[in-house]
């Protein structure tokens, strides 16, 4: 009888493949898959759309380990229907994304964005540079998970007052105060900076919309590194054009790559980065720290101990 298969849908270093085999000696580890082998796939690392129907309909799939933190691109209802466990890569990108956010904040508050443009034009212009002090600003993190907590810790030494929003308003270490997401429009009124780090779900779709932007200070900055569809793109563009808020930095978008005819490209008070905030040094090591811990527990008792996704909620 053929061994059940752990299917790695992306390449990993041989040292990690060896550790997988050591933890799960009764499994076969595959990086390629024939049609005949589909029925024996029990665990898959990563998810490819072109393999979706085959894995759901022709295998004994029991556990999917997503490489990303967000899982809105996965067939969650099908996983629930087939009793398939799902875990994600939440936490891997926390330092990288936090540093990206801080970079965008300093680039705006210290005039680095405008200085870069002036350099390209060989223009020396001190008087036209926007500058402000980040220390003392009130910053709201919408999404107090791994990334939000890392961001809060990183901002502490810069003197930023960090508040949080989560589903219920439950207290979270590292935040001065936390609030329920139902109070978002009221809380943003007192914030200088609002940072979105939300997953993509039905509940978060277009949650950052004209109502939220209208309640923000005209001097406020908005940053999004969560899912692109948490922001109503057209309404954000209007808010920026009408100077309802001063500046925004987006790393994620409703449509990626961002189309060349998007009105966002022409907004002077918007920083666009091409979904790079999660780029992480030694990603494989950080990912395997999660997967191998889960694999050991799964082999022993069929359960996961790290980052299990609640399928109904989508995170």
TrEMBL record:
Residue ranges constituting the D-isomer specific 2-hydroxyacid dehydrogenase NAD-binding domain according to the UniProt record: 103-277
InterPro entries, per database record: D-isomer_2_OHA_DH_cat_dom (IPR006139), D-isomer_DH_NAD-bd (IPR006140), NAD(P)-bd_dom_sf (IPR036291)
Top-rank taxon, per record: Bacteria
Record-annotated D-isomer specific 2-hydroxyacid dehydrogenase catalytic domain positions: 14-306
Keywords per UniProt: NAD, Oxidoreductase
SUPFAM superfamilies per the UniProt record, alphabetical: Formate/glycerate dehydrogenase catalytic domain-like (SSF52283), NAD(P)-binding Rossmann-fold domains (SSF51735)
Pfam families registered for this protein in UniProt: 2-Hacid_dh, 2-Hacid_dh_C
Keyword Methyltransferase: no
Keyword presence, Oxidoreductase: yes
Family: Belongs to the D-isomer specific 2-hydroxyacid dehydrogenase family.
Name of protein: Phosphoglycerate dehydrogenase
Organism listed in the record: Candidatus Enterococcus moelleringii
């Amino acid at each position: 009888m053929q061994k059940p298969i752990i299917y790695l849908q992306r390449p990993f270093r041989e040292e990690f493949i060896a550790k997988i085999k050591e933890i799960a000696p009764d499994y076969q580890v595959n990086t390629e898959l024939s049609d005949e082998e589909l029925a024996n796939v029990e665990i898959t690392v990563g998810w490819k759309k072109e393999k979706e129907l085959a894995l759901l309909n022709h295998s004994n799939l029991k556990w999917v380990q997503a490489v990303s933190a967000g899982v809105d691109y996965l067939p969650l209802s099908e996983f629930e229907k087939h009793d398939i466990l799902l875990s994600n890569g939440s936490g891997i990108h926390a330092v990288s994304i936090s540093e990206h956010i801080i970079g965008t904040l300093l680039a705006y508050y210290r005039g680095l964005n405008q200085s870069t443009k002036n350099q390209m034009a060989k223009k020396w212009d001190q008087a036209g540079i926007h500058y402000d002090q980040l220390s003392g600003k009130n910053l709201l993190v919408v999404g107090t998970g791994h990334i939000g907590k890392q961001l809060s810790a990183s901002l502490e030494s810069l003197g930023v007052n960090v508040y949080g929003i989560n589903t219920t308003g439950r207290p979270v270490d590292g935040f001065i105060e936390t609030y329920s997401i139902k109070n978002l429009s009221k809380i943003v009124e007192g914030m200088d900076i609002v940072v979105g780090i939300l997953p993509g779900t039905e509940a978060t779709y277009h949650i950052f919309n004209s109502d939220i932007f209208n309640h923000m200070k005209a001097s406020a900055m908005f940053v999004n590194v969560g899912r692109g569809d948490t922001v109503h793109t057209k309404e954000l563009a209007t808010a920026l054009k009408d100077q309802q808020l001063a500046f925004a930095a987006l790393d994620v978008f409703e449509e990626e790559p961002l189309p060349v005819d998007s009105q966002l490209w022409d907004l002077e008070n918007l920083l666009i980065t091409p979904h790079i905030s999660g780029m992480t040094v030694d990603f494989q090591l950080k990912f395997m720290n999660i997967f191998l811990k889960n694999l050991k527990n799964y082999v022993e008792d069929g359960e996961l101990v790290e980052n299990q996704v609640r399928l109904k909620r989508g995170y």
